[in-house]
């Protein structure tokens, strides 16, 4: 098996409905511009509040993809 290198970036997805949808939004957006996504790890969950109520669910997601040089 050949050696491979993967790069990890951190994204924050948001949703008005759930943390799951927030994480999915981050991955869906990343897949639009990154190739060969391998793993997504939910690193942190939090809530955006407004007037004492939940305005949005936020998921901080670490996404890894095969590194092909550059950058």
How would you characterize the overall build of this protein?
This protein is of the alpha+beta class and 71 residues long. The chain has a single domain (6-66), classed as 2-Layer Sandwich (Dodecin subunit-like), CATH 3.30.1660. It is built from one helix and three strands; from the N terminus they run βαββ. The chain has one helix at residues 19-31, and strands at residues 6-15, 37-50, 53-66. It has a three-stranded antiparallel β-sheet. β2 (37-50) and β3 (53-66) form a beta hairpin. The model has no long low-confidence stretch (mean pLDDT 92).
Radius of gyration: 14 Å
The CATH homologous superfamily name equals Flavin-binding protein dodecin
N-end to C-end Cα span:
25 Å
- Oligomeric state as shown: single chain
**Mean of all residue-level pLDDT scores:** 92
N-to-C order of helices and strands: EHEE
**Shape category:** elongated
- Total domain modules: 1
Largest sheet: number of strands, sense, barrel closure: 3 strands, antiparallel
CATH topology: Dodecin subunit-like
List strands and helices in order, with pairings.
Blueprint: E1 6-15, H1 19-31, E2 37-50, E3 53-66
Antiparallel strand pairs: 1-3, 2-3
